[in-house]
């Protein structure tokens, strides 16, 4: 078994980004600027925001964070989105999901200017992605593609099984790996909570992408020998022995499944690391006007 080392890869990519920032500055331009809007205190979002701000600092990007209390009105959030759309000093921004229940996520997502949608969540970017047109790819799927490319993992003709059909991870991942070219040309099965005989599908997978949000859901009897495991899950589980009282784990039973896998991503230190750098890569493309 070999580890797909997201931490090391992210470090390499951050060094490349830092170099590009220096080149922009040498050409008299300002550093790329990424903004994030966080409403309330979703734990996965807090991890993400913290790492995003830290990564921006490491590569020399400007970053800003708009923190709003959980009881902020939808109207107020939409106003913040409009201001960011209009702000020429901001190249790209994201609104952290999930939003509190009283806020309509669809309405907020539709309000984001697709040219600044470095999350790739707006249907204009999603549609462009599905048709292989220039776009911002959603950060988690983009990070997984980057990992596949840099480790030169073959995808052509492979059986890929994706667990989870969210519009930010599972669904775009299934589309991207079925597109023409590399990394693509795979045969993809998309599974979800209504899938019958889930293990019948997962056992056929050459590459298994798990994005369901259930701690250690994928067990060794659900995979075949030699499988490539891409574990997207970021779950908090109780760990009284630790000072903070919890630890992070993925959707895959890492220790047990690693025995059968040819390659596997750890959690933390895997996909999450690449998600953050993909967001920075999208922001750099926005700053350079490469997409729109
Ligand atoms: N590493 C990273 O960068 C990121 C990590 N995450 C993490 O990834 C995980 C998934 O998040 P997200 O994509 O937002 O997913 P969602 O929570 O939006 O959706 C979960 C999906 O899993 C499916 N599902 C739930 N239970 C089962 C089951 N027993 N069997 C099969 N499918 C099931 C659901 O099916 P149905 O549609 O039928 O309800 C749904 O499609 C979370 O742990 C999240 O924190 C998320 C984003 C980025
Ligand atoms: N609009 C929006 N876009 C998102 O992409 C989005 C979101 N909302 N809401 C929340 C989820 C979750 N998510 C994570 C990304 C990286 C880590 C990450 O950095 N993980 C580190 C954690 C290390 C640690 O700090 O312990 C790792 O896996 O190594 C975690 C979680 C993005 N999401
Ligand atoms: Mg990870």
TrEMBL record:
PROSITE patterns: THF_DHG_CYH_1 (PS00766). Keywords: Amino-acid biosynthesis, Histidine biosynthesis, Hydrolase, Methionine biosynthesis, Multifunctional enzyme, NADP, One-carbon metabolism, Oxidoreductase, Purine biosynthesis. Residues 4-119 form the Tetrahydrofolate dehydrogenase/cyclohydrolase catalytic domain. The keyword Amino-acid biosynthesis applies. It catalyses: (6R)-5,10-methenyltetrahydrofolate + H2O = (6R)-10-formyltetrahydrofolate + H(+); (6R)-5,10-methylene-5,6,7,8-tetrahydrofolate + NADP(+) = (6R)-5,10-methenyltetrahydrofolate + NADPH. CDD domains: NAD_bind_m-THF_DH_Cyclohyd (cd01080). InterPro entries: Aminoacid_DH-like_N_sf, NAD(P)-bd_dom_sf, THF_DH/CycHdrlase, THF_DH/CycHdrlase_cat_dom, THF_DH/CycHdrlase_CS, THF_DH/CycHdrlase_NAD-bd_dom. One of its GO terms (biological process) is purine nucleotide biosynthetic process. Catalyzes the oxidation of 5,10-methylenetetrahydrofolate to 5,10-methenyltetrahydrofolate and then the hydrolysis of 5,10-methenyltetrahydrofolate to 10-formyltetrahydrofolate. Homodimer. Belongs to the tetrahydrofolate dehydrogenase/cyclohydrolase family. This is Bifunctional protein FolD. It comes from Phaeodactylibacter xiamenensis. The gene is folD.
């Amino acid at each position: 078994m070999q580890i797909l080392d997201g931490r090391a890869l992210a470090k390499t990519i951050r060094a490349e980004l830092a170099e590009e920032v220096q080149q922009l500055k040498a050409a008299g331009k300002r550093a790329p600027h990424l903004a994030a809007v966080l409403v309330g205190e979703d734990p996965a979002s807090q991890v993400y925001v913290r790492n995003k701000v830290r990564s921006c600092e490491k590569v020399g990007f400007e970053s800003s964070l708009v923190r709003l209390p959980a009881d902020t009105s939808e109207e107020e959030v939409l106003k913040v989105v409009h201001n960011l759309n209009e702000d020429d000093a901001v190249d790209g921004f994201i609104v952290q999901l999930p939003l509190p229940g009283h806020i309509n996520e669809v309405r907020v997502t539709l309000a984001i200017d697709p040219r600044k949608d470095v999350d790739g969540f707006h249907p204009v970017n999603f549609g462009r992605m599905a048709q292989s047109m220039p776009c911002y790819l959603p950060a988690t799927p983009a990070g997984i593609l980057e990992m596949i490319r840099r480790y030169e993992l073959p995808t052509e003709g492979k059986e890929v099984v994706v667990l989870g059909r969210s519009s930010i991870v599972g669904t775009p991942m299934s589309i991207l790996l079925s597109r023409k070219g590399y990394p693509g040309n795979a045969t993809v099965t998309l599974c979800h909570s209504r899938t019958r005989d889930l293990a019948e599908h997962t056992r056929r997978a050459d590459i298994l992408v798990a994005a369901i949000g259930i701690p250690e859901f994928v067990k060794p009897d659900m995979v075949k020998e030699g499988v490539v495991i891409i574990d997207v899950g970021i779950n908090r589980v109780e760990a009284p022995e630790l000072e903070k009282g919890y630890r992070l784990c993925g959707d895959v039973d890492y220790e047990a499944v690693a025995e059968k896998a040819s390659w596997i991503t750890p959690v933390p230190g895997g996909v999450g690391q690449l998600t953050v750098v993909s967001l920075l890569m999208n922001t750099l493309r926005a700053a350079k006007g490469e997409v729109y």
